[in-house]
Amino acid sequence: MKRREFFKKGTTAAVAAGVIPLVTASCVGAKDMVYDRKQDKWFDLGTGKTGSNSRKKTVAYDVAVIGGGAAGICAAVAAARNGSKTVLIQDRPVLGGNASSEMRVHLNGVNNIKGKAERETGIIEEILLHNRFENEQESFPVWDHVLYDFVVREPNLTLMLNTQAIEAVMDGDKIKSALCWQATTEILFTINAPVYIDCSGDGLLAATSGAEYRTGREGKAEFNEKFAPDEPDGWQMGATLLMSSKDMGKPMKYSPPSYAIKYTHEGGHKRRKFAGFHEGIWWIEVGSDDDIIADFEENRHKLMGYLHGVWDYIKNSGKFPEAENLALDWVGSLPGRRESRRFIGDYIVSEKDMTEHKHFDDAVAFGGWSLDEHNPGGIENISEPPSYFHYHFEEVYQFPFRSLYSKNVSNLMFAGRNVSQTHIALSSSRIMGTCALMGQAVGTAAAICNKKNVLPREVGQKYIKNLQEQMLRDDAFIPKRPANDPNDLARKASLIFGSTTSSGDAKKLINGFSRDIDGKNNHWQSDGLSADLQLEWESSISLSYVELKCDTNLQRNIMMRKDSRNDELYFNGIPNELLKSLSLEARVNGKWIKLGVIEENRTRLIKFKFDTIKTTAVRIKMTETYGAENVKLFEVRCYA
Amino acid sequence: MINSLKITLSLLLPLWFLISFQTKSMAVKNINHKIVLKHPGEDIPVEVTLVEVQDSDGLPIAYFTDVESVICLEQVCKIVSVRIYWNNIGVYQKYELENGATLEKYEDDLFDPEDYKKLHTILANIDSPYKEVYLDEILTVVDEHTEDIDAVSGATALELDEKDTVPGAALTCFTLWHWVNGDIVSIIKNKTGESVSNKQLQQFLVDENETYFYIAIAELQKRKNYSKEFIDTIIKRGLKDDFLLRTAFNYLKGASVENYLYAAETLFFKGSREQKLTTTRSLINTDYKVSKGYLNNFSTQFSKLDYQEVSLLLELMQDKNPNSKVVIENVLPLLSGDFIIARRAYWFLNNETLTTKQEREIKCFYKKHKDKL
């Protein structure tokens, strides 16, 4: 019997049950409540009389991804979309990792190569475009929900928030289970999966599995790294605590809390600047030369003290009159981490692989953020610049698959800052856009592991082409590695042409390069709208899928940032080049029949799926973009 | 006015455009236009006087206007009057200051000689980053070291490459760039179009700089002038420059049916691939009634065309000239040529009313290729 029903029925039921003395019907109090002890589980739960819920559960998936940052989300979505039943385990209440509203670190990528972006594509591009539509205001709390939406709408993917993978149960050199503690429900999950991907940054699950890792800085000699210290040491770049302030339109007082650490900027390096301080200062940073994970709580406390110390300096030193009306509007309590464990794979990426643009046959990702190594000591060593920008890339570098799986735990992969690389390499590849590409690679690889019943290393050895081709089909970009999918029927077309052409050539849409790069254009652009693209095959083909890659202006950033920049390099709206409205037709028995219509497209990779038909020609009719006068495409693919 | 122009301060600009209006003998007339402009830094539209300078033939040869050097929100900046010059198609030429006046940077710094040159370069760059910068971004303190942008947060101030701005004078750059490259450019083009004679418009149509072509076409449309003389010039230009065909047809579709069809036929028969495709598309979309005889004539070209041209022309015939015996006769030979073209011809013929002999021919084609149709 439910409690409300009891009150509604008044005393009649009680009398009938004969459990309590008769009372006047007009004033029934809490003391007068009667319970059906056998059924009132809510009452008996505390006493254990009806037994308690099991606090241990065992569940099974094809792929378990640990960590819900950019890398983990992309890994989980890639695995799920490629056919693996996937679980994404995130230890925080929100997704996004360092870029979540809990930390608000900018989600950057290859933001600037000789003055232009070279944006990541694939799943991270889809996320950032989704954010442009759903979060034009660029609010970090709304961004959390954009990511939540992006993940929970995937049909083959289960999300577990507030859940931390705390220990690996091993079976030989394989992880058999991941023990995961869900703090909000007090449940200890045993998660079984044939493949595990640790994208959690610190990599607790991977560490407990016995996967080899290293921390700290390599010495110059080990990898012939120009920017490494002469001798190896334990230094790891620190975590940063951010904040933001608000102009209240009137002078605002500030007094620091008890734990503030006085800051004076005396002896501070000239590059330790305050520009943009009202949105946080990235050099409020504390690292460690020992066990940075063990030091975390101590460092968090220090960082909270430094944050208020620096704000006190800004507000009360008299040196920042422009801060008079500012008040703290948000202060972080969870520092954003840059570095801790780096797990060892079959290959360790180092500085020269990046600066000399080493070509890897197993390349699956790319990066291009500068070698941006923060100073040893962080804010506790202000005489040094807050970061050494050792090297600025003039073209993107490759990242190999062999650095994304463990050398000694056979069913474990990684993506993000914890992959197989040196400290110096990490100083560039730690950027979230780059981590996201690694995520898509390992998620796709995990699905191949399941399909082929192999382990990650075998994917690298036997199926690397399958992995690369699937990633390229899914809109990833691998430098110097054009797509060459034998199943793509567009490549077998006898003719491909656009109704009009203002630049490029429709034939370039099947050349395997889905962006303009290395000084070459790989696009077809119409002359005005509407415009058609047509493919003709000499013999009839079976067709079920047509996929396009349209322009979103990859040379201009649409990252998630606090500063909402809108200039030559950054854009804070929906790219006006994005194709909005289009339809697909196929010619059957000499007549054009409609196979699909998209009115409000939101993605760079546009997919049409339909019941298999026999045809000799398809025609894509494009009628509108989000503002551009012409439509530009980079690829067309057709599959049976 | 001419005298006052001569005594204005000659800045240290790298290029002195010796535009003709500075020669007394050439410039004969200045016309003042009161115009209203929107500026992204101003809340409400601003009225300014745009001066059009015409030569003795009444041809606009330049424009200029005076604006304030900086939009100043807190009344603390020094404002000087800046005269901006454009040529007759709205391309910025130079700026001048009042005699003795100087431009100022943030915190009372004065412009260096190099800064004046750089300002000129910035104003001349129609794709300057200032194009898409907002005023509130300018008002944020600018960090002069642009590279130190950390993955964690980065500076929030406007960050422009040093080549794109005068450090400390972003607000001046922003203010002037939008005066120079804003709505006034299209106003100047319109004014030029309005001022020139038909004879001058003829010259515009053949000028190598295509902006003159666009101005002339817009003006001819406004004047509803579709004379044969203009149409011939436009056809000639369309045969030479593919990229102008869309604009040309946009004009031609307003001409009389005779002139439109004359232009279409000339461009199709004398032109190459782009002319043929653009013409055929235009004929498909035109509201004019086109005679069978006219379209039949086009069908004589089938054997010389590639697949895309054939396909589009067949679409035109199917739509506007179905069951034409002449067209059918001209299409039938395609069945024995390149297979992809033959198949397209087959699907066309399959929908036409054919003679028994012709029916046999296409049945024969069907039998032979039924697996590839």
Walk across the major sheet of chain B and give the strand order.
1-2-3-4-5
Enumerate the spans of chain B where pLDDT stays under 50 for 5 or more consecutive residues: 1-25, 141-157
Largest interface: A-B, 61 and 45 residues
Q: Cα-atom Rg of chain B, whole angstroms? A: 30 Å
Integer average pLDDT of chain B: 85
* C-alpha Rg of chain A (nearest Å): 28 Å
Can you walk me through this structure?
Chain A: It comes from Flavivirga aquatica. Chain A: This is Fumarate reductase. The complex is a heterodimer of chains A (640) and B (373). Chain A is of the alpha+beta class. Chain A has three domains: 3-47, no CATH class; 53-481, FAD/NAD(P)-binding domain (3-Layer(bba) Sandwich), CATH 3.50.50; 489-639, Sandwich (Jelly Rolls), CATH 2.60.120. Helix content of chain A is 21%, strand content 26%. Chain A contains 14 helices and 27 strands. In chain A, strands 20, 21, 22, 23, 24, 25, 26 and 27 form an eight-stranded antiparallel sheet that branches. In chain A, strands 4-3-2-8-19 form a five-stranded parallel sheet. A four-stranded mixed sheet of chain A has the order 1-7-6-5. In chain A, a hairpin with a 2-residue loop joins strand 5 and strand 6 (174-182). The longest helix of chain A has 21 residues, at 296-316. Mean pLDDT of chain B is 85; it is low at 1-25 and 141-157. The longest helix of chain B is centred in the middle third of the chain and has 14 residues, at 210-223. Chain B has helices spanning 2-7, 113-124, 135-138, 170-181, 184-195, 198-206, 210-223, 228-240, 245-252, 257-270, 273-285, 292-298, 307-320, 325-331, 339-350, 356-369; strands spanning 27-37, 46-55, 60-68, 81-86, 92-97. In chain B, strand 4 and strand 5 form a beta hairpin. The relative contact order of chain B is 0.07. In chain B, helix 6 (198-206) packs antiparallel against helix 7 (210-223) and helix 11 (273-285) runs parallel beside helix 13. Chain B has a domain at 2-185. Chain B has 373 residues and is of the alpha+beta class. Chain B has a five-stranded antiparallel sheet, with helices on one face. The chains are: A alpha+beta (640), B alpha+beta (373). At the A-B interface, strand 23 of A face helix 11 and helix 15 of B.
